[in-house]
Amino acid sequence: MVEAEEIWVEKYRPQKLSEIVGQQEIVSRLQAFVTKKTLPHLLFAGPAGTGKTTAALCIVRELFDEGWRQNLLELNASDERGIDTIRTKVKDYARTKPIRDVPYKIILLDESDALTSDAQHALRRTMEMFAHSTRFILDCNFSSRIIEPIQSRCAIFRFRRLSAKEIEHMLKRIAHGEKLTLTPDAIKAIIYVSDGDMRRAINVLQTAAALEKKVDEKSIYDVNAIAKPEEVRRMLELAVAGKFDDARNKLHELLIDKGLAGEDVLEQVHREIFNLKLPERTKVELVDKLGEFSFRLVQGANERIQLEAMLAHFGLIKPKS
Predict the structure, then answer these.
(1) Residues 259, 274: one domain?
(2) Residue span of the structural domain in which 288 resides
(3) pLDDT tens by residue, 14-64
(4) The whole model's pTM is what?
């Protein structure tokens, strides 16, 4: 029987807080809590793939060592998001005493911004009642979706997107560990595709490496069904220059040959507008129009017609200083 290949995100996940990449200020504050074993309730907020869940697991490992699994209840709130989960699973676990010499156990609520309003109101009382035996770690993408009473009970840490240098460091470490040849262009492509998301960067690298041990720029874009930045930029330059037919042909290449969805094209267009050699005022007008067509696609309009209309509007905008 062929053994399943290990998922690199888990294989290279940091085991200690000091190993986490790119969140040094947050790590140092969390390390102080762990050293003194005086952990408050924690709320981790920030974009996906920036180390929130990893930080929570590192805290538990460092507090409980080998017995960390017996002292952790991990729930994904996007799956178990109702009030019944809080009243049963969470409350029952919070009642029990911790194992080992740490005076509390940990409940990790992943994707906690998906909890319903009723569940959050039930959770705030549970956090208060069992604070002597349980600490809660909530992680989310949008802290604004967490009710104020819960936020006031937590120490809030905001994780930032990872820089290109930090992602490059991790990619080179994995390439060395997996004996891959990773070209500089491939690293740049992964950084562009991942947009500060370390988890996505690692998954992109593993997917490309499944084809061959030498990973180059072409393999990165091929496995991700994403257009090269220069292709999108060229389409925009043609549109702004009034060459509608040429821009339209480029668009069809992206939609048909590359298989991109309309929203994927819009997302890349948004990123590339700021790389065009145009006056700032013109870029403002382009982004303004882009927002209008993004709304139309969300409302269910035909993506090909709307994207062509967007290019037509771009052609009507005259560069302004």
Answers:
(1) yes
(2) 229-316
(3) 889 989 988 899 999 999 999 988 889 999 999 999 999 999 999 999 998
(4) 0.83
